[in-house]
Automatic annotation (TrEMBL):
<keyword id="KW-0853">WD repeat</keyword>
<keyword id="KW-0677">Repeat</keyword>
<feature type="compositionally biased region" description="Acidic residues">
    <location>
        <begin position="528"/>
        <end position="538"/>
    </location>
</feature>
<feature type="compositionally biased region" description="Basic and acidic residues">
    <location>
        <begin position="648"/>
        <end position="663"/>
    </location>
</feature>
<dbReference type="InterPro" id="IPR056550">
    <property type="entry name" value="NOL10_2nd"/>
</dbReference>
<dbReference type="InterPro" id="IPR056551">
    <property type="entry name" value="Beta-prop_NOL10_N"/>
</dbReference>
<dbReference type="Pfam" id="PF08159">
    <property type="entry name" value="NUC153"/>
</dbReference>
<feature type="region of interest" description="Disordered">
    <location>
        <begin position="528"/>
        <end position="558"/>
    </location>
</feature>
<keyword id="KW-0175">Coiled coil</keyword>
<dbReference type="GO" id="GO:0030686">
    <property type="term" value="C:90S preribosome"/>
</dbReference>
<dbReference type="GO" id="GO:0000462">
    <property type="term" value="P:maturation of SSU-rRNA from tricistronic rRNA transcript (SSU-rRNA, 5.8S rRNA, LSU-rRNA)"/>
</dbReference>
<comment type="similarity">
    <text>Belongs to the WD repeat NOL10/ENP2 family.</text>
</comment>
<feature type="domain" description="NUC153">
    <location>
        <begin position="482"/>
        <end position="508"/>
    </location>
</feature>
<dbReference type="InterPro" id="IPR012580">
    <property type="entry name" value="NUC153"/>
</dbReference>
<feature type="region of interest" description="Disordered">
    <location>
        <begin position="633"/>
        <end position="688"/>
    </location>
</feature>
<feature type="compositionally biased region" description="Basic residues">
    <location>
        <begin position="664"/>
        <end position="688"/>
    </location>
</feature>
<dbReference type="InterPro" id="IPR036322">
    <property type="entry name" value="WD40_repeat_dom_sf"/>
</dbReference>
Length: 688
């Protein structure tokens, strides 16, 4: 159980601490409770008071015995019996629940408005009936005298469903494009609905006519509130016969008297989040308003904050248990929070032991802050000569040191250091001297990188300050103090190279200005090294030199540019001569290239010819190929052109073709000789 206090109002969080998973056996749960102190000390007021993922709405039945909550995932409703401090039943639904209402004193009659335009009725045994409304619903209210359900949503109409006749009645036609919330006054049954345009329309159910219109969007704009966009109505609640509280989507709560169109008080949550819930606490005349981040309790007459709570997770709904100091919330988390605030009222009957528990905690508070004690370390005790007190009742061990009585500490300090007054006097004199030094011109520490640039910026900043003082303008921020340019004066990679060609050409007067700045920089470094803050004369001399030379800078601008260009040409000439000398000294070594198999080396001229040929255009290459006979271009009958290419043969292919040609010629000659011998048989016998 966690205890927090704001404005001296104690709030006990009964759902704080870790929860054990459901799938653990009883034996393992007992073992964990023995080992873990936090689990053993936690208070589980209602067993398994949670949802699988998220809880969206929570309500208490009129008899106070049952607490009902809806959530996801899967969409479900859970009913908890406070007399048994456990879950009574759980029912899964087809779609997520937007809101629900308990019509009976117990859980026997419940109506659910679901996000799929469905309205589902449940009785004591379970699902009873299901119907559908024409448009998506956002809220509904039950009119007890006529048994009518009033549905508001993404439509200008208010749909009426009569539960006695079991049919839809004529709807109410409003001026709003959409409606977000609605409520019925419990005394005179006036029906009120909050629109998306920031207005509240009031209707009389007996005559089905509109009887009033409040422009809450206009009234929510005050001198203390900051509003972005048009505020729509997100919460609505009646209190008695005449009071009504309205919550807007921009985080304001307006309290109205129905007899006036102006709000009695406007309370801003200062978060800009829609108000989710509004509750009235009659014992202390408080209004409990909540957005997704904070729950605020404030006086409805003065608007003064009573207390506030900020849960760990976003809030979806708040429910105040009737006639007690217990508060329950539905959150964007599995566990539903339970708070007990004794100032608001006593604990409910089913958990009256909470009063005794909180009284015991108040009687024996744990002292965590020591106002009359001084925290000292072991080293401090040795300096004071009190190290022998370690382990005694005069010292209380805490973290890396000890707490001791403040009176004992002062006595020991006086005895250990009797000249404390002299030290105090010297310290005061030193402070006075530093104050007088601060009035004089102080040396500014320059960064390690780009010192000259930093000095230039400091000078420009001083000149701009003088000009802005004369013109009564605001000083511009300094580059040296800007975090975006901090790296430029820390990282050596950003060092400005003054010898580069670009720098010298773009800054023709840089030589003169840099000389002045270098002189001043040298003076500053000498003073910084010696630690002499009194010497300010060199800076004055440098400023005089600047004023005398400022007129010459404009006259010698062209000459300076010419000089820089001449110097650059001379430097380039010297570089070229050095490169020539290096080329002459270097010896050329032969390079060897490997030829692929099947290829012969001809000359380097072929590769040069190929490179020249590749640089030519396609038209030039085609003309050249046509001259060589490897390309034939002819016109066709259709009107287009036809190009025929002859592929160039490689050296290996040419040799192969020549060998084949010789082989064919040899075979022809052999055939001729053989045929000649056959035609002369006499000569042929000589070979036998």
């Amino acid at each position: 159980m966690q205890v927090s206090s704001l404005n001296e109002v104690k709030i006990y969080s009964l759902s704080a601490g870790r929860s054990l998973p459901e799938w653990l056996s009883d034996r393992k749960k007992r073992a964990l409770q023995k080992k873990d102190v936090d689990i053993r000390r936690r208070i589980e007021l209602i067993q398994d008071f949670e949802m699988p993922t998220v809880s969206t709405k929570i309500k208490v039945s009129r008899d106070g015995q049952y607490i009902m909550a809806v959530g996801t995932y899967k969409p479900r409703v859970r009913c908890f019996d406070t007399y048994q401090l456990s879950q009574k039943f759980e029912r899964c639904l087809d779609s997520e629940v937007v809101t629900f209402e308990i019509l009976s004193d117990d859980y026997s009659k419940i109506v659910f408005l679901q996000c799929g335009r469905f309205v589902e009725f449940h009785s004591q045994h379970g699902h009873y009936y299901k119907t559908r409304i024409p448009k998506f619903g956002r809220d509904f209210s039950y009119h007890y005298p006529s048994c009518d359900l009033y549905f508001v949503g993404a439509s200008s109409e208010v749909y009426r469903l009569n539960l006695e006749q079991g049919r839809f009645l004529n709807s109410l036609q409003t001026e709003a494009s959409e409606s977000n919330v609605c409520d019925i006054n419990p005394v005179h049954f006036l029906f009120a609905m909050g629109t998306a345009e920031g207005k509240v329309e009031c209707w009389d159910p007996r005559t089905r006519n509109r009887v009033g219109l409040l422009d809450c969007a206009l009234s929510s704009v005050t001198a203390d509130t900051e509003i972005e966009g048009l505020p729509s109505i997100s919460a609505l609640k009646f209190d008695g016969a005449l009071n009504m509280a309205v919550g807007t989507s921009t985080g304001q709560v307006l309290l109205y008297d129905l007899r006036s169109s102006n709000p009695l008080i406007v309370k801003d949550h200062h978060y800009g989040l829609p108000i989710k819930s509004i509750q009235f606490q009659h014992q202390l005349d408080l209004i409990i308003s909540a957005d997704s981040r904070i729950i605020k309790m404030w006086n409805k007459d003065t608007g003064k904050i009573f207390t506030s709570m900020e849960p760990e997770h976003d809030i979806n709904d708040v429910c105040l248990y009737p006639n007690s100091g217990m508060l329950m919330t539905a959150n964007e988390a599995p566990k539903m929070n339970i708070y007990y605030i004794p100032v608001l009222g006593p604990a409910p009957k089913w958990c009256s032991f909470l009063d005794n528990l909180t009284e015991e905690l108040e009687e024996n508070p744990e002292s965590t802050v020591y106002d009359d004690y001084k925290f000292v370390t072991r080293k401090d005790l040795e300096n004071l000569g009190l190290a022998h007190l370690i382990g005694s009742s005069l010292l209380r061990a805490y973290m890396h040191g000890f707490f001791m009585d403040i009176r004992l500490y002062h006595k020991a300090k006086m005895m250990a250091n009797p000249f404390a007054y002299e030290e105090y006097r010297r310290e005061k004199i030193r402070q006075k001297i530093e104050e007088t030094r601060a009035q004089r011109v102080q040396l500014k520490k320059l960064p390690k990188v780009n010192k000259e640039l930093a000095l230039k910026l400091i000078e420009e900043e001083g000149e701009e300050q003088q000009i802005s003082k004369k013109r009564k303008q605001k000083n511009l921020p300094s580059l040296l103090k800007d975090d975006r340019f901090k790296v430029m004066f820390e990282n050596p990679d950003f060092q400005v190279d003054e010898q580069s060609e670009e720098f010298r050409l773009l800054n023709p007067l840089v030589s003169k200005i840099s000389e002045k700045r270098k002189r001043k920089l040298k003076i500053l470094e000498e003073l910084e090294a010696q630690g002499q803050e009194e010497e300010e004369e060199p800076e004055g001399k440098a400023s005089d030199a600047e004023s005398s030379e400022s007129s010459d800078d404009e006259k010698g601008w062209v000459e300076e540019v010419r000089k820089q260009r001449k110097l650059l040409r001379q430097e380039e000439k010297l570089k070229r001569q050095e490169r020539l000398k290096e080329d002459q000294q270097t010896l050329l070594k032969p390079q060897f290239f490997e030829i692929k198999e099947g290829e012969e080396f001809r000359s380097f001229k072929d590769s040069a010819k190929k490179q020249k040929l590749m640089k030519k255009t396609l038209e030039d290459r085609l003309k050249l190929e046509e001259k060589l006979g490897t390309l034939n271009v002819s016109d066709t009958t259709v009107g287009s052109k036809q190009a025929t290419f002859k592929l160039k043969k490689s050296e290996q292919q040419r040799k192969q073709q020549e060998a084949e040609k010789r082989h064919r010629q040899e075979r022809k000659s052999l055939r001729r000789s053989a045929s000649h011998l056959k035609s002369r048989p006499g000569r042929g016998r000589l070979f036998h």
